[in-house]
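Fill in residues.
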């Protein structure tokens, strides 16, 4: 991060000195021209198909031409983690695809420092299950589900009457409406990640997470999806959808760090690379959101255009 900051400061000074009337451009534009954004895909444990997802994340980030990607793999579940020490500060953004054993204290402390100092974090779907007993992580992700989460972890996070709504009713966090295609509704059209996207678009067949809860500090909901009470739900205490607009994409500010989470992106546990189809992650909406989220988390801006094959309200679009 120090090198990036240095480059950014120098570029800003340069612009101020030579073109005081125009002023500096967006930091993201300068950064994109200076060098690739360094992204770490961090994976190795998940009850979902992390082997498929980590490769997918690497591939869709690299295809933008903006990112240089390293995939870092943790020891397997139950193995000794004492040698596990990801070099967070070498990266502009961490794309987390992990739901598993607690990291050792030095790794947790290193990650907290990285985020407080302006790091970036992007994650999807079941990553919101992990680390329920790590308070700083719960603050970073804003809200999560399962892993023993309940009212002690914070309110249910909902979207009602056009705004964020925090429901302090006690209860288990995490319901999973059975996979189906569902409309995703943009709630912050002026946010750099959402700029130019349709107000409503149809997401490829995916689970629909509902009743997530957490500290919900410094949180902005970018998009929601309606949890249909007529549809069956599993893995929680409810048998059907909640009838609420549930957060599907959101951001959190943690110190100087930027976080983007999405509830979308189901791939079956144990799925091997090359298996599929996996419409939840082959959805062009999901792909575009991850690509834009990673740029925003790293730089604070988005320079990528909306692709021509972005889904519409009438139909899904898969790649
Ligand atoms: Zn899932």
């Amino acid at each position: 991060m120090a090198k990036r900051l240095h480059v950014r400061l120098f570029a800003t000074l340069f612009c101020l000195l030579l073109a005081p009337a125009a002023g500096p451009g967006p930091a993201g534009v300068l950064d994109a021209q200076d060098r690739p954004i360094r992204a770490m895909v961090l994976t190795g444990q998940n009850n979902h198909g992390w082997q498929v997802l980590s490769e997918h994340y690497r591939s869709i980030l690299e295809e933008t031409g903006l990112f240089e990607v390293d995939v870092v793999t943790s020891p397997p579940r139950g193995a000794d983690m004492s040698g596990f020490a990801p070099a967070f500060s070498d990266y502009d953004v961490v794309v987390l695809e992990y739901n598993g054993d607690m990291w050792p204290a030095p790794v947790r402390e290193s990650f907290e420092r990285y985020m407080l100092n302006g790091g970036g974090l992007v994650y999807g779907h079941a990553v919101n299950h992990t680390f329920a007993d790590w308070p700083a992580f719960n603050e970073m992700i804003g809200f999560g589900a399962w892993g023993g989460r309940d009212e002690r972890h914070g309110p249910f996070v909902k979207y009602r009457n056009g705004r964020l709504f925090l429901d302090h009713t006690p209860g288990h966090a995490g319901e999973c409406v059975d996979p189906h295609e569902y409309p995703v509704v943009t709630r912050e059209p002026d946010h750099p990640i959402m700029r130019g996207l349709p107000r409503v678009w149809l997401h490829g067949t995916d689970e629909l997470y509902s009743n997530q809860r957490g500290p919900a500090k410094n949180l902005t909901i970018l998009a929601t999806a309606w949890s249909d009470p007529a549809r069956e739900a599993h893995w929680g205490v409810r048998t059907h959808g909640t009838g609420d607009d549930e957060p599907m994409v959101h951001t959190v500010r943690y110190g100087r760090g930027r976080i983007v989470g999405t509830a979308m992106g189901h791939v079956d546990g144990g799925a091997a690379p090359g298996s599929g189809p996996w419409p939840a992650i082959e959805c062009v909406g999901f792909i575009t959101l991850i690509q834009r989220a990673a740029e925003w988390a790293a730089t604070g801006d988005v320079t990528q255009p909306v692709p021509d094959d972005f889904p519409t309200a009438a139909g899904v679009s898969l790649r």
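The longest helix spans residues 2-18.
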